[in-house]
Amino acid sequence: MLAESVLHNRLPDALAGVDLPFLGAKTQGKVRDIYRHGDRLVLVTTDRLSAFDRILGLVPYKGQVLTQLAAWWFAETQDIIGNHLLDVPDPNVTIARICEPLPVEVVVRGYITGVTSTALWYQYSLGNRTIYGIDFPDGLRKNDALPEPIITPTTKARDGGHDERITSAEVVASGLVAASVWAQVCEAAIAVFKRGQELARRAGLILVDTKYEFGIAPDGSVVLIDEMHTPDSSRFWIADTFAERRAAGSEPDNFDKEFIRLYYAAHGYRGEGDPFPMPPELAVQAAARYIRTYEMLTGRTFAPGDYPADLRIENNLRRWLASTTP
Ligand SMILES: Nc1ncnc2c1ncn2[C@@H]1O[C@H](COP(=O)(O)OP(=O)(O)OP(=O)(O)O)[C@@H](O)[C@H]1O
Ligand SMILES: [Mg+2]
């Protein structure tokens, strides 16, 4: 594990983005810079941290953790469902098959929790007992495990809007996803989530909930795209302290991005207007958590790529380009 003083020294060199005109035109997601080369997608995962649908700042090594952790999970789940990953030519770069993304985000939840308006617990605490078209019994307490994981899809918001809740029935009835495809997606999402919970548990973590993106590959198959089971897309709790903290009436130890949201909430920001930039100490804490999560889940020691990363990425992608035909 890298010392916090080292992470602090890396702050000025965290990767804001890349500029690789030899790969053609760049498109930007909140976290990734993306190029298309023939039928390949070049996804460069930057160190940008987004929350509240905004970029709050840069977290050293976050892009590398996300890239390498997602690649590890893709390998650990490919017996259940195929995925878009082809190659990782640089610690921050994923080469993927270009797929047709489904227009819904597939959220899977194993626990009733959360504070935002889309969270199960928030809706339940308002007295709703039918949420996302699923019926819930009375008497659940915050952070209870659900008897079986559930799927709560949201539409994919365009142009900075917020994602909207939608039921499984609406996904199909609205024609967003064909019924046969949606059935495959749901089956795969639950199976992959259960595998995720199993592997997380072995690593001392609870996989609480997550968000998958699925796409249709060029061969017509339904595959996982984007990333999976990282602290950006998933909520993790520390397994060891869960029961004891519950008994004491306190919140689980979270090991994901939630502490950033809590920090902002504690400093008066709840998603209205422009957030204040992430303070340096918070960015260092975030980096340490991302790296620790990677190390716990994979059982590997994080090997930091050379910093600053931009020149290294450019060199590795020039080499990749020379060795590939579109
Ligand atoms: N294999 C793939 N084929 C096509 N698109 C993909 C694939 N994998 C990921 N994507 C898309 O690439 C983008 C990844 O970038 P990033 O994670 O930064 O975006 P985001 O901010 O989450 O989403 P967006 O900016 O689209 O709202 C997402 O829009 C995702 O849907
Ligand atoms: Mg994304």
Describe the biggest sheet? 7 strands, antiparallel
CATH arch. level architecture of the largest domain: 2-Layer Sandwich
Spell out which ligands are present: adenosine-5'-triphosphate, magnesium ion
Average pLDDT score:
95
Oligomer: single chain
CATH topology of the largest domain: D-amino Acid Aminotransferase, Chain A, domain 1
Radius of gyration: 20 Å
Determine and state the CATH class of the largest domain.
Alpha Beta
The run of helices and strands is HEEEEEHEEEEHEEEEHHEEEHHHH
Question: What are the segments in which pLDDT stays under 50 over at least 5 consecutive residues?
Answer: none
Structural class determined from secondary elements: alpha+beta
- Structurally, the number of domains stands at 2
Share of helix, binned:
25-40%
First and last CA, distance:
39 Å
Overall geometry: globular
Characterization of this structure:
- The chain has helices at 4-10, 62-77, 120-125, 168-173, 179-202, 242-247, 258-266, 280-298, 309-322, and strands at residues 27-28, 32-37, 40-45, 48-51, 54-58, 85-90, 93-97, 100-101, 104-112, 130-131, 134-135, 144-151, 154-155, 205-216, 222-225, 234-238.
- With 326 residues, it is of the alpha+beta class.
- It folds into 2 domains: 4-99 and 279-322, Phosphorylase Kinase, domain 1 (2-Layer Sandwich); 101-247, D-amino Acid Aminotransferase, Chain A, domain 1 (2-Layer Sandwich).
- The model has no long low-confidence stretch (mean pLDDT 95).
- The strands form 4 sheets. Strands 8, 9, 12, 13, 14, 15 and 16 form a 7-stranded antiparallel sheet that branches. A 5-stranded antiparallel sheet has the order 1-2-3-7-6. It has a two-stranded antiparallel ribbon with strand order 4-5.
- Bound molecules: adenosine-5'-triphosphate (ATP) and magnesium ion.
- Adenosine-5'-triphosphate binds at residues 29-32, 34, 41, 84, 96-99, 101, 213, 215, 225-226.
